[in-house]
Amino acid sequence: MNVNHVDLTISAVHPDQYPSTDYPEIALVGRSNVGKSSLTNALINRKNFAHTSSQPGKTQTLNFYNVEDKLYFVDVPGYGYAKVSKKQREEFGQMIENYLTQRSQLRGVIMLVDGRHAPTADDVQMYQWLAYYELPILVVATKIDKVKPSQFTRVQKLVKDKLEFQEKQPLVLFSAMSKRGKEDVWRWIEEQTGV
Ligand code: GTP
Ligand code: MG
Q1: Where does the chain show beta strands of DSSP type E?
Q2: pTM, to two decimals
Q3: How many Å lie between the centroid of ligand 2 and the Cα of residue 51?
Q4: Which of 45, 111, 121, 183 is 20 to 30 Å from the Cα of 174, by its Cα?
């Protein structure tokens, strides 16, 4: 999709703050610092519209980005961030779980993993959980600019093996620097949302 108009409609914590539109929604999930906000920016052709940071834990609310009055990207706080308190982590977990399990507008989830490393136990748990709820999932291995092209096949196999991929589970290798994989991600989003 050719994106010209985007706005941050709401940073929500409670379901009653979610937008009241019926536009389809695509959520982005993954560990803190994996690159969710960077992927959001790449998809909407902006540099730092969704705030990125080298400090993990930057995104702490569900951020609904209205794209062309057609769909929402929902940037979800990262999991696996050790520095937040246990209570905060539980509140985050509840907020994310409520959204992912109860939002009828949600059409699919983009789950990011760090392409430089094997998926972590948190990643495995998140993937299994999404699969259990039968949400359409696109796995994106990001920061792939840090990996030699000769290693791409190994990365793909590692991610598939660790997450115990469902049959036909799509996987895209992505870089926010080079924008590699961006068109594939958009194609998947268009398939899920019909935009
Ligand atoms: P939280 O909001 O804290 O959960 O983080 P996030 O998942 O939104 O990550 P964010 O997009 O803020 O990126 C974290 C750091 O990784 C930043 O320093 C980005 O510049 C860097 N980064 C993100 N994507 C890429 C990528 O594809 N390649 C490289 N080399 N760096 C990346
Ligand atoms: Mg973020």
Answers
A1: 6-12, 25-30, 62-67, 71-75, 106-114, 137-142, 171-173
A2: 0.95
A3: 6
A4: 121
